From TrEMBL:
Annotated GO biological process: protein deneddylation; proteolysis
Source species, domain of life: Eukaryota
Protein name as annotated: Ubiquitin-like protease family profile domain-containing protein
PROSITE patterns: ULP_PROTEASE
Source organism: Camellia sinensis
InterPro entries: Nep1/2-like, Papain-like_cys_pep_sf, Peptidase_C48_C
Amino acid sequence: MVERGGVEKTVYKGPIVHYNDDVLRQSALDILRCPCFLNDRIIEFYFSYLPSCYPSEEILLVLPSIAFWIANCPDIESLKDLIEPLNLSSKKLEIFPVNNNDDVTEAEGGNHWSLLVFERNSNLYRAIVGYIGISDMASACTYVECSKTPQQVNGYNCGLYGAAIAKAICSWYESKSEPNDDDGLWFSTMNEQRFRNRRKMRDGPFIQEHDGNI
């Protein structure tokens, strides 16, 4: 069965892959098989999985649902219970996936993914993969939009690029053996990598090797 937009849908809608409390269903795999915008569910699953590849306690990959609420919560005081478990003060590298949806009543809204990255040693926030509208979070730090980042050439690959760049940054931080820019950060590393994450997400070892369970 084919839905509007060219996404081929299978009859089975149940869970395909489990990782901790996160689940990918057949509908998510259908999205990965075609040129489509990656939804919140896929980004959330990938950001839950990625720390198993880069287990450093200094790295924090913030789930998109948490990043969204940090950016849009109208009551700052109520954020304390959400933020405290993240232990931000102990993290050296923080990566926030940000969707441009600003309507808290609309599930899986928006049409563009970006990244906000904080590197503590340089006390620097970087906006990656397009404009991010939450720079107020970085008011105590330097905030710079990164223009050297590989850019998508279509209207749907922002999530794919964001996921791949997040992985590249984690790899840079853990190895520190990759070539750095003049400021000692990761931008040269990202420009040297080729991004094939859609296939890796769809056919990668965390799906194949575990036969539907992790």
